[in-house]
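Q: For a teaching handout, I want to show students what a protein-ligand complex looks like in token form. Below are the inputs, and the small molecule is iron/sulfur cluster. Please produce the holo structure.
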Amino acid sequence: MLSRPHRFVCVRCNQCCGGQPGYVWLSQKDLEALSNYLHVSKRTFAFEYCRPINIGITLTLSLKEKENHDCIFLGREGCVVYEVRPAQCRTYPFWESVLEDEQRWTEEGNACPGIGQGAIVPSETILNAIVERRQNPPLSIEDVAELKGLETEWGAQ
Ligand code: SF4
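A: Here is the structure, written as tokens, with iron/sulfur cluster included.
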């Protein structure tokens, strides 16, 4: 996976932040950081900015999208919660699914113009991203006390 050099520089085009349907999964740490940043409770944050998604084994959270499928936090100047953006966003494009082989990495360049540009990214940086993503799996809403029963409120929306 890391035997090949990977060139990447983010050109802040925001293509990975919207324009088509997708999911931005939140880990427990992401939920905590984002709700603290916005000075709201986790429950309020989840209700206002997230949608519940059933991933088979559990119900988890993904950030809401605008009508045009942009992320709810994508503003005119870019991400409005950039300092505390979710691990999924912080670690892109160094996801194991993208790094699995050269073809997959090259194909991802169609979605991200920063791939293949700039300097070679140190292996350590890539490994750190992989570890960070692994340490931040999508949360289960049943594991977060403050979110208990929120499904009912979403259902009533
Ligand atoms: S698509 Fe790539 S270059 Fe554009 S903002 Fe996202 S990470 Fe940066």
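A: Two things your students might notice: The chain has seven helices and six strands. Residues 8 and 153 are 42 Å apart (CA to CA).
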